[in-house]
Structures are given as structure tokens and as C-alpha cells.
Amino acid sequence: MAGHTESVSKAELWDGGGSPFRVSYGKLMMWLFLVSDALTFGGLLVAYGFFRHRYPDWPVGEKVFNSMPGLGDGYPLLYVALMTFILIVSSVTMVLAVEAGHRLDKKGVIKWLAFTVIGGFFFVGSQAWEWYHFIHGGGGVITTMTGEVYHSNTDLHMDAAGHYHIPPDGLELVQNKYGEGEIVVIDPSEYPGIFDNMADYYTGASMLRNEYAATSNTSDQEYVKAAPQFGNAFFFITGFHGFHVFSGVVINIIILLQVVRGKFDDLGHYEMVEKTGLYWHFVDLVWVFVFTFFYLV
Amino acid sequence: MERDDLIVDESYARAAHHDEEHGRKIRKKIVFVTILLTVITVVEVLIGSSIPRDSGSGTWTAIKWLFIGMTLLKAGYIVLSFMHLGDERKSLKYTILVPYIFFICYLILIALTESTYISNLFYGN
Questions:
Q1: pTM metric for this prediction
Q2: Three-class SS of residue A266?
Q3: What is the value of ipTM here, to two decimals?
């Protein structure tokens, strides 16, 4: 912490007998691990950036991620912002736990570490909901034998007899049979003809395709099918990050139990809390970048 | 045999201890950084959800760079303040940061320059 680095001459620092960085072996190794992990995330994010420029048909974050649990659509980015806030707050409680550890305040460490674990669970839970919503989607895409593409704002549930329900929100033609994007609201009397002519129907997102519309470079009205790489990048980047959060929560729980059992009272310092704290802050740090590059830009 | 490196490690860990008064100062800084990070996030979300992407290519490019700047600011506060890298010895700080800064230059080259070139090959004018 601030002001703890005492002034030592260079010769003395590098003279052996101790770390020239004046940090413990474990802490230095945690830092080196974080650097290598940051390289992995950097690779994933740059692959994302590459896809995004390579494929012009890329969806807009605030149009895809605009739902709140129990409230429906119309809240662009609010849920992701909430997740970001939860993770930042859990990072703050972690740094408070580290600070309490430096004062050998066992009760403080337990309190703040417990809050951090709760925040981590909230984040992992939010991400699970986000995945569920992304995979299942809200609407659907119909392609026909003659090459038209229709978009429905609600899912067309198939009944046992193999019939699709007519969507209450109606259907829109989004791409005509010449492959040009145009938006035409379809009269319900034409629905049966479209369903008979249907070649394929899909909703939500998978690794192969997704229903999310991409932005056109020319006009906001034009509909473009999104590149499947959009779904792939979402699953890989948020999935890899979510796995990190989950591991972080597990590690935090283990350390919390060790604190409660008094392991660090015997040692005389709480450096283990600081080391797990480094990992936890790193998870928050990665999310800051994922949030910007995946959702905002 | 007793391991002398562990004894040295313990002394590094104990050197990080501080008293209640110093702790209060640190907590004040934590509160400041928290508020800053929250405000930046709120501003980012407001910009991201209110300004449409087709509001002129120049505007959106400017916003993109604004986002990148705000993100790096947030990242800097997290690394230097929350992870205490700013309080470590200079040698450690640069051992961690300098290699990654080199790597970032490479990332930017791939993500912006190379991908745009590939995109122009496929959809070029």
C-alpha cells in the first residue's frame, strides 16, 4: 500500500538475499499469471475486433441487449450496466478486505470478503440469465423457398400438429427475393401462404446462426442477417470471462473459510487475501474491456 | 532445514501492514475511485444507448475513441489503485506493464489496420 516502499540503494536491492522487487514469491507469480491471462483475453478481444471489421453485418449491442428480467424489452444496455456495477462494487469490497487485512482486522476481512463472494454470485447469476435470454431470443427469422426473409418480433411457437402460431406482433418482410433489404409489414391474410412456403425458421442464437439483425452501413431501415461470428464471439468471450468469475468466487470462498478458521492469525499476515484480491480485480478489469468492446462500441 | 526464502517473504508481507489512521486515508481513496468508476460507467451507458450509430461516421469514430479513452482510464485506476501496482517498486511496475504495452500495439495493428484491409479485399470499393 501507499508509502510502504522504503528507499534502498540499487546495489543493495540487487545484491541477492531477497527479492529485488521487494514482493513475496507468491505475489510476483500471481502478477505474472495475470499478465499471461491478460494476453489470452487480449487475443480473444482482438479476434473479436478483427471479425467485426471483417464482417460488415454486425449487430448493434444496444439493440440486442435491451431486456431486463421481468420487464421485457426497451431498456438498452441497462442490464449489462447493472452487471458492470455489481462487479465494480464487488471489486471495491475486495480492496476493503485487503485493507482490513493490512490492519490485521479479522472481522473486517470476513465481512468484506463475504460481500465480495455475494457480489460474485450475483454477477455469475446475471450472466446465466443473459446467456439464457441470448440463446432463446425474443423473435424469429423465417426464410422461404423463394428467397424472401421475414422477421417476427415474437417467437412463433410450434404446436403439436406442426403449425406455427400467428405472431401477435405481426410479420415484416425484411429482404425481398432479389436479396435486397426492404421493410414491408405483411397483412395477416398473407400469413398462411408464407408459412406454406417456409424453408426454415430459427430463433435466438447458436454457434451457427442467430436471429439478431445487423446494422446496415447505408440505412437504419435495411435488415441484414447477422454474421454467426457474433454469436461465437459472445459465447467465447463472455463464457471465458464467466468461467474466470466462477473460479474467483470459489477461490474467495476457500480463502474466506481459511480466514474464519484463523489460519492467517497464526501466520501473522493476510497476504493470501491480497493475492486472491489481485485475481479478483483482474476479473473486474477484463470485464471493463469486454463491456466497452462487446456492448458499447 | 528451514527455508530462508519463506522468512524473507513473510517480512515483505508484514511490511504492507499499516495502522488505523493510515487505513482511513486509504479508504478515502477507495471511495473516490469507486465514485469515479461508477460515474464513468454511467456516462458510457448514456452515450452508448442514446446516440445512434448512423449519426455521421465522424461522430461515431469520435465516440469510439472516447469509449477507448474512458476504458483505459478505468483500467488504469483498477490496476494502479485497486491492485496497488502504483504503490509497488518501479522495477516491478515496469516488469508487468511494459511487455503488455508492446503487446497492445500489436493488438491494435491486427484489430484495426489488418482487419480493415481484409474487409476491403472482400467488400472493397
A1: 0.88
A2: helix
A3: 0.89
